[in-house]
Every structure is written in C-alpha cells, then in structure tokens.
Write a structure and sequence with these properties.
heterodimer; A: 299 residues; Immunoglobulin-like; flat; B: 446 residues; mainly alpha; 2 domains; 16 helices; globular
Amino acid sequence: MKKYINILGEFISKGVILIVIALLTMPLIIKADSQEKKKIKYRMSLTYNKFFDGSKSLTVGMRYRKETSFVNISNALIGFYLITDKGEIKLADIKTNENGKALLRIAADYKLPWDADNYCTFAARFDGNEEGKATDEEILIKDIDIDFNFTEDSEEKYINVSITESGDSGARIPIYDALVNGYVERMFSLLPIIEDFSDEDGKLISEFPNDLPGDSLGNLIVIVSIIESDEYGTVEMKKTIDWGIPVDFSETETPRALWTDEAPVWMAITVLIILLGAWLNFALAIYKVSKIKGLSKSA
Amino acid sequence: METNKKSTTILADFVPFLVTFKKSWYLSIIVLSIIILFGFYAFIVQLVDGHIVTGMRDNVVWGVYIINFIFFLGLSYAGALISCIFHLGRVSWGKPLIRMLEIMAVASLIVGPIYIILCIGRVDRLFNLFIHARIQSPITWDVIAIFTDMVFCIAYLYMTHIKDFSKLRDWEDERIKPWRRKLYTVLSIGYQDTPQQKKQLNSALDIMAAIIIPTSIIAYSLLAWLFGMNLRPGWHSSILAPYFVLTAVYSGVCLLIIVMWVYRKSRYLKNYITNQHFNYLGFVMVMFALFYGYFTFSDYITEWYNSVKVNTSLLDKLFSFEGYAWMFIISIVTAAILPLIVIAVPRFRSINSITITAFFVLIGLWFRRYLLIVPPLETPYIPIQNSNLEWVNYSATWVEWTLTAAGIAFIILVYMLMSKLAPIIPISEIEERSKKIRVFYKGTKE
C-alpha cells in the first residue's frame, strides 16, 4: 500500500512540475505570436501625361509582390506634390482605386513651376499603413510641345511633326532624337502610321496613307505622341484632317441570311420540300378515304 | 363465318359499355367540367389583370405554362409515334392499345398549344405569328409542325375508327339509339368492308402512319431546338432534341400504362388488356429509365466539366438544397432508378406496382421539364440590370396550377367521351389478320 502511495505521489509531483513549466512558458509563446507582423514593401510608379488640349495628369500605381505575381493596392492615400526651390507644394490627396491607380488631373490653365530649363519635379508619397511601408516616388519632367501639320504634293500626302520646348521670349527650341509615334483613330483601337525619331531641328516628316476609310465626310483623327519617355513623360497632340475615304452609310441590299427578312434559299427550299412531302402524302391518304363512299355505291 | 362470330362476341362485350351511362360517369363528367370551368375562370382573371397574376416576371419569363406545353406535346407525339409503330409493324400485342394512344395524341395536342396562348399574354397579337412569320425562326417551324401534326393525328384517329363505326352502324341492338346510329352512318362514310374499300382504307392508314412517325419526331425535335439553339446555360446542348424525344416517348408509355390500368377496371377489358401488356410496357419503361439516366448524366457532366462560369452557376443552383436539389433528386430517383427496382426485380413486379411506378415517373419527368425551364431562366446568360430581387426566383400561382389541372381534366374528359362514342379497343384491328406490309419484306436478298 505504501508503495502505491509513493508511486502516486511521484506522478502527482511530476504532473505539477509539468503544469508549472507550461504556465511559465505560455506568456513567451503568446508574446512571440503577438510580435508585430512584418510590413509589406509597396512599389509605387508615377507617370506624367500631357494631352492635346494642354491639360496634364499624374498617375500613381501602387502594388506589391506576392510570390510570382503582383497585387494591386486599393484605398491607399497618395499625396501629390510639386517640388520647387522654395519647397513642396501639395496638389492633392487621392486614394487608389480597385486597380491600384490614383489619377490627378491638372487643368491646362494651372501654372506649373517650370524652371529655366523647362523642368519640373513631381512627387507622390504614401505615408504607410498597418500593412504596408511608406514609399514615395519623384520624376523630373521637361515640358515639351508637339505640333504637326499636313502637306501634300501631286503624288503623296505628308504629316510634318515638330517637337519643341519653350525658350526665352517665346522662342521654340527643337528637341532632338525624341521617339515619336503617330496614329489614326479607328473604331476600337489606334492604327500606327508613324514611328521615328525627331531630327536636329526637332522635325519629322512622314508619309500619310491614302487608303484609310474616314467618316461620311472623309475625316480622320490623327494623334501624334511621345509615349512613356523618362524625360518628357507621355505627350500627345490630336488633330482632324479630311484625308480619309468617305464611307457611304446608305442602306445596301441585305443578303439572304438567318438574321434578315429573307431566309437563305437552301432553307426555304428544304422547308418547302419537307412540307410538300408530308402534305402530299396526307392528300393521297384523304383521296383514298374519299374513294370509300364511291366504292360502296358500286358494291 | 367465324370472323363474324368473333366480331359479334367482341361487339357484344362493348355495346353495353357504350350505351350505358352510370351515375358515377355523370358525376365524373360534372367534376371534370367544373375543373375545366374553373380553369376558364382563371384564364379570364389572367386576361383582365395581366400576367401579374402568374409567377412570371422579367427574369423568369417562362414557367408552368411552357412546362405544360412541352409535357403535353411530348405525350401527344409519343402517343402518335407509338400507335403508328404498332400499326406499321403489325405488332399483335399492341393492337388493343392503339386507340388509347391515338386519343392520347389528339387530346394532348389540343391541350398543349393552349398553354402557349396562355403564356403569350397579348392574345390579340397571336396572329402576328402567321402574318409576320419568318421561315428562319424555330418558332415558325414549331407552329407549322404542331399544326401539321394536329391535322394528321385527328385525321388518323378518325380513319382508324371508320371500320368500327361501320360495325356499330350495322349492329342490331335496340340499345343503340337512332341518333347514335345516324351518327355512325355519317362517320362510317359508307364503309361496308368490301375488298376494294378495305384496300383503300388500309393503304390510307399505312400512309398516314408512315408520315406521322417522322412528323412527330421532327416536330418534337423542333421544340427542343427552340431551347437548344439558344445560348442560355442548361439549354444550349446538342443532345436536347434526342433527349426530348426520349422523355416524350417515356412519358407516353407511362401515361399509357395508367390509362390501361384505369380501363382494365372494366370487366369487358380484362381479356384484352392483359398482364402481358403491363409486362412488355414495364420493360419498355426500364429501358427508357436507363436511357434517361444516361442522357441526363451526359448532359450535366458536359456542362459541369467545361467550368464556364454561367454553367457552374446553374449547376450550383440545381445541386443546392436551397435551390432545386430536392426536385432534381426526385426526378432522378423516380424516373431513372425506381423503374429499375420495381420492374426489373420480379419480386416487386405487379400490375399495380408498374402503374404506381408509371405515375411517379410521370411526376419525375414533369419535374425534369421544370428543371429545364425555370433554373436556366433564373441564371441569365447576360446579367440583367435593375432587376427586382423578388423577381429572380419563380413561384407558380393559383392561376397557373388551376389551368394545369384544367388541362389534365380535359384529357380525362376526352377519354371518357371518346370511349362512349366507340370502343376503346379497336375491334376491327383485333379481329382482322393483319397483312404484312410488302415493302418491308420484298426485295431483301439472302
């Protein structure tokens, strides 16, 4: 009996020791678990656009890397700034949309603080949140203008592009070696017609196609742009010219089809043959039945 | 002559049934007429108040009416198809059943298209179907097919009665009232069973049977193509036409069994509708149950496997117990599994069990049509904007159920009236030794 009491006592004492150890280590485990989660490193992109009417836009894209792909960040508050010699000028605070984009439009008449060399620094800043670290981005953009006009000779038509920046007293300084793209607006996309570099005079002459269909008056919308340049951003100019082939929208004769008023010939013939076949046989059966009465008289 | 004696015996069995009207018969007619009148009242309510009195809304634009249209048309085509196959194939055991099938064909074909008219809403615009018919439209094909089949089936039903009308015209029995005898005289169009007349009539019957078979198959396939040629999930399936024909014939066999069971209650018919008929048709049911299960599985597994989002939404709805899982399970258990257990196992096989199974199969097949129409309409192919949430799910109203009951009552009424006009068993078919159709046998070489 004493022996069993001793064994029991041993078990109880060992059990108590284990419980005490567990109680002492529990806070450490909980504390380790509640340690601050590592914040995600967000990636920010900032782009500048200048449109044909003189208005501009700044677009921020926010995303982070998850394994082998990127995930867009929505609802991130982005601050847009102009960086000048005199300090920062805050333009706006905008939240990113479901695609992770925040867009700031700058009106054409808003005077941006271009320096003497026509440069301006734009900045975007994200101050961070519970999940992501703070991040910012700056771009230095040179203000340039695109202009173009149309000329033609007896054989060909041409588009003459000029890329310039503002100089002293309103002079235009040519931009050399800028990659210029030209397009004609189509219904769902843009048709490329120019892809070339500007010369020392900031000019570029390209042939214009003769065979493009326009609207009913032959109008074509032509867009000339510099796309995603590190120095200039994206700049575009748009004009209309009546060099397209006028399209005749008058109603032409619609062919026979499933969706028109007249059925395809093969369908009409098939239906007719089937119906005729069935009803002629029916008529034959009725004829045979109709003869019964006549046969009864003669019987 | 022995033939005359035999026909004398058969007619003697049936004439009392034709001329005797029991109180229970009158009561049944009154009850059925009341149900039909109540259905007519429901139609007036719908005509005055519009389709708001039904469960149909912007999302689910087709409901019980279209389901009934498909169901009854299926019964009709099945009746026509099976009776013509029995006739052309000179199937001796099928002879007593031919008239029941023909009446099923005509009665269901009258009732079925009425549901389309009920579904249209603006009945005054019905004639646009004919005035502005487009030959490219499956609806136009369907209208032509239904009209053609209706004319053919009514003509065939009449032609198969001519010989019996002539026998009844000549039957000397004072219980046959003068007006009835006069009616038989008119309807028998001078048929006197001479060899020339018999040749003409048999030839006409063979021609009609031969053209009704493809007409029925094509007509029901056209109905299936109305759905199959649509992009909607659950409808856009290339096996829909054979599936429809299969379920139609399956429904027709089940209804035939029920009709046989009812008529067999009469002591006159027990000698003509035998255990063997139930056996044969029971095995036909088993065969169709297997095909039905196979077609249903094939249809759903094809839709499920391609993982197209809208197909998956439909299947989720069908297999969810908050959706239509119960109805789906009932339709599979009753139509695909129950016949295999009850009929294929000899221990469970009896006339009553076969009939009860047929009844449940009919319910299961009606549910299948319900699952074909309503869940796909609740799963739009292109999202519907500004839709009222209450309109997404369909629930039939008293108007629709009343009109369904009226349709069923009408078919029963037609059976009751037709079986008082002429024997429900075609006496002439039974007593004549059928000549085999030469075209099926001549020219086949060893």
